[in-house]
Model the fold of this input.
Amino acid sequence: MKSKSILFIDPPAFCTTVESMVAPALRTRPIVIAPPGADRATILALSLEAREAGVTQGMLLPKARKLCPDLIILPPNPRLYARASRALHDVLRRYAPLIEPRGYGHAFLDVSGTEGLFGSPIDLAERIRRETREQVRLPLSVAVATNKLVSETAIRADRWSGVAAEGRQISPLLQVESGHEAIFLAPLRVAVMPEIPDRVREQLDDYQLDFIGEIAAITGQQAYGVFGRPGLELVARSRGIDPRPVLPPALKAEFTISHILASDTNDLGTLHTLLRRMSERLGKRLRARHLAARRLIVDLAYSDYKPGKRSIALAPALLDIELWNAARRVFTLANTRPVSIRSVTVTVDRLVEANAQLDLFWSDLFAKEACLGNKPGSRTPVIPPMHTEAGSLQSAIDRITKRWGNRLLTRGQ
Done:
C-alpha cells in the first residue's frame, strides 16, 4: 500500500507574528504574550527574538524580564489569533481534503493522493507557503512525512536546533522520505518528540535515555516492564510508526452507540445478541472511514441507576467478530452486580488508520507483548490480533449485507 503524505503546518511564533502584523513597530522586537496584572504570570507565547534572548514558554514573567530587559509584554488576544487562523485555513482547504487544526495556526494536512492535481507533496508544501505569504502575510514552516508524529517532530527538531545554534536559520521546508523515519529520528533528542507523558519523560531521564534512537533499540517487552503499556507505544513511535489518522474537527475521535432496553434484564442471551448488533454497527462505521480502534469501552446503566464501566485494549483490527468478542469480554468485566441492566453503551476510540502500517505496528511490538495484558492481575486486558485471512471474509460479508441485508446470513457461535 502506498504511504501517506502528511504535512505539518507551523507558522513560527504565530501569536507574536500576528501581533506584529497589526502593529508593524513590534517587528524584530522581543515580544511575549502573558496574562496582564499577575506577578506570577507565565509566558504563553513568544517571538523568536525573545527566544534568542533566553526566554522560554512557561517561564515566569519576572525571570523573563531579567533575561531581556527590553521585553515587550502583550495580553492575549484570542479573537485576533482565531481570525488569523481562519484566514490561514481558508488557504489550506484549497489543497487538502483532510485538515486537523492543532492550536492557533498549526495544522496537520493529509494530502495523500493529490499528486495528480497539485504535484508532489513537497511542491504542494511550497505552493501553500507562497500563497499564505502573499494572501495572509504569514511565514510558514512545513514538514512532509508519512505520518503525524514524524512531520511534527521534524518541525520541532529544526526549531530547537535553529535556536540552539547561533546564526542558524529555521528551515521553511522539511521532508522525511518514506522508509527513512527511524533513521531520521534516531539522532534526535527525546525532548523534541511530542506527546510523551510527563511521567514517562521523567522515567526516561532517570534511565538517561536522551536520544530517540536509544529508545528504538529497546524491545517491546523491556519497555512494557519499565513504562507499562505506554512504553509499547513509545517504542513504536521512536521507530517512526504512528498510525493515527488526520481527523477534521467535524469527526470525533471516537464512535459510540447506545441502546436503552425495552425492559430491564440481566439475560445474557439477550445482552450478548445486543452486543453483537452494536459491534457490527461500530465495525461498519470504522471500515467506512478506513479506521481501526485500539480501545473498546462498555458503559452499563442498571435499573437502580448505578453505573458500571470497563474498557479493553484492542489490536487495531476491522473484524466484527473481534469487536464482538471484545465487547462480550469487557461486558463480563463491567457487569459485577446481580441487578438488571437498563441500557448499554459501547464506544471505540484511540482511532488509527487501517492500513499496512498496523501490521508492522503489531507484529514488531504487540504480537507477543500484548498477551502480557492478559496475565492474572492485569488492570487493562488486551485482545491480541487474529492472524488469519478473515479480512477478505469480512469484506465479502459487508458486500452481502449492503445488497441484501442481514437476513441471508446465519451466524454461529
Q: What stands out?
A: Residues 116 and 203 are 46 Å apart (CA to CA). The chain has 16 helices and 13 strands. The longest strand covers residues 341-353.
